[in-house]
UniProtKB/TrEMBL annotation:
<dbReference type="Pfam" id="PF02353">
    <property type="entry name" value="CMAS"/>
</dbReference>
<dbReference type="GO" id="GO:0008168">
    <property type="term" value="F:methyltransferase activity"/>
</dbReference>
<keyword id="KW-0949">S-adenosyl-L-methionine</keyword>
<dbReference type="Pfam" id="PF25371">
    <property type="entry name" value="DUF7884"/>
</dbReference>
<dbReference type="InterPro" id="IPR029063">
    <property type="entry name" value="SAM-dependent_MTases_sf"/>
</dbReference>
<comment type="similarity">
    <text>Belongs to the CFA/CMAS family.</text>
</comment>
<dbReference type="InterPro" id="IPR057206">
    <property type="entry name" value="DUF7884"/>
</dbReference>
<dbReference type="InterPro" id="IPR050723">
    <property type="entry name" value="CFA/CMAS"/>
</dbReference>
<dbReference type="GO" id="GO:0008610">
    <property type="term" value="P:lipid biosynthetic process"/>
</dbReference>
<keyword id="KW-0489">Methyltransferase</keyword>
<keyword id="KW-0808">Transferase</keyword>
<keyword id="KW-0443">Lipid metabolism</keyword>
<dbReference type="InterPro" id="IPR003333">
    <property type="entry name" value="CMAS"/>
</dbReference>
<dbReference type="GO" id="GO:0032259">
    <property type="term" value="P:methylation"/>
</dbReference>
<feature type="domain" description="DUF7884">
    <location>
        <begin position="17"/>
        <end position="64"/>
    </location>
</feature>
<protein>
    <submittedName>
        <fullName>SAM-dependent methyltransferase</fullName>
    </submittedName>
</protein>
Amino acid sequence: MQIERLLAGKIRKGSLLLSFPDGRQRQFGDGEPQAEWRFHDPKALAKIAADPEFMLGQTYMDGAWDAGEQGLLPLLKVLMQNFPAAGDAKARAWWQLLLKPIQQWNRLAASRRNVARHYDLDESLFRHFLDRDMQYSCAYFRSAAMELEAAQQAKCEHIRRKLLLSHDMKVLDIGCGWGGLAIFLAREAGVRVTGLTLSREQYRVASERVQRAGLEGQVEIRLEDYREHSGRYDRIVSVGMFEHVGAPYFRTYFDHVYGLMRSDGVALIHTIGRTSPPTTTNPWIRRYIFPGGYIPAMSEAMEAVEKSGLITADIEVLRLHYARTLAAWQQRFQLVRDRIAMEKGERFCRMWEFYLASSEASFRWRDLVVFQLQLSNALTAVPTTRDYLYRPLRGDADGGSVVSTMRVV
């Protein structure tokens, strides 16, 4: 069988026990990590061998295989450590790169459709597995003992410091999600925030949260594309939105950041990135999770920054923080999985848990990290050292807590 020959020639790190639908088993490799792959549909083996990047997730969604008692993560670890990513230079197909602009077709109408596919899923789904503040992006684990809620607030505080905010500054939040960061910045720094989102569901929830927080005079949420927005801001922040821009539009994005920011302004762009050269989006993720999405290489993002006129003040790479975040999301999702299966069906749950597991695995054993790009319009807008980022927080003698005034709405 083709997949048996493939596994026999490739599994050199760890071991894999393959269970066939007829009850036969075969062991590949030796030692740790150990993983199990149980097939229920014999046709799935050939499908995965022919198109692993897409069919691995597709056949799992279809219930054609399971990962044994240890779960998806050990299996994905063995597979990722023994097989190169399709985007690796030696494995990348020329036709994939030709299709790249079409895969990231994110003009105005397409962007709205793409956002709706994911972010307009009902609010309750996200509340089931996110932290109380509904932060749907990488947390910042300042200590090994930090829980998800504290780590997400630490992320907000880290961003607040990088923005160098003063009372009553005007801040633009591009891709404001459910409003958590905008509310945090308004409360903690006394700034006025305009949040932009293309998701009607996020717009509804964020607007309600602003009203409940009594911050209508400080925070305004708009259902608007950044390319249609006008104004001048002291600070611009964008968390988890740049992944939806698409490489053909990077220059447009940074040109707008430059044009919307005052001459002494500062911007903080927080995005998933890759440590490898430019490639294409995984086809399963593109179809089922983030249509139009693309994770940038540093070289792609910085080429657009340099051409925009923006000054790169600082770059920080967060490694493994998103893996911990995704692990926490998966754990919470599994606690309510039966309830979600009743609401949305087993196939949806298998899609979602594969999305969370494969994403965590990509941050642990592939090339995914998080970039925080601190940009400015003036050389003097940002301090010349990072000391200002690491002063003790209020009520935080040991670095464990974040801010004493944290409330959730």
